[in-house]
Fold:
Amino acid sequence: MEEKNLLRKEIQKVRDNLNVKLRESASKKIAKYFFKTDEYIKAKNIFIFYPFRSEVNTVIIIKKAIADKKKIILPKVSGKTLKLFFVDDIYKQLEQGAYGIMEPNERLCKQADVKQIDLAVIPGVCFDEKFNRLGYGGGFYDGIIPTLPKKAKKIALCFSAQIVKEVPVEEHDSKVDVIITEQKIYKNEGI
Structure:
């Protein structure tokens, strides 16, 4: 646990220290790669996170996906779990929620079911080339990933600075299927 916390702090600091312009141009490259994946092209219902602090800017993806007539599902923190909602207008349907992250306003959004997800875009502090993920420590995604439909691919979007040699893993930790950085797409050929 201590090893995870140290790595979490170290990589968040690295990511926070990336130049804002570099983060924005890298986010655009990542989005460009993402839009070309079969997973995106075939998906109808995309579960994705709203960016927080220095994360990859997923707003680029959310806006284009909505324009492409795909359904966007965003999470809302509810106690120790995530509730899912369809969002089609990020300017009118979101409000600041847990941890200061923009979340769906329950009164303005239709609730989604995890079974409806075709593609899941999973956040994380860092990843390794074995597709292991280190989250933020809240366990929200560790709780939802195992409940995703088998057909739903799990894609991580991160900056190349977030790829580490090895992520310490425990039994409950889940892998992702694809990792997209501004430099490279890593595909788990075992999927």
The chain has one domain: 2-184. DSSP finds five helices and 13 strands in the chain. The mean pLDDT is 94. The domain at 2-184 is CATH 3.40.50.10420 (Rossmann fold).
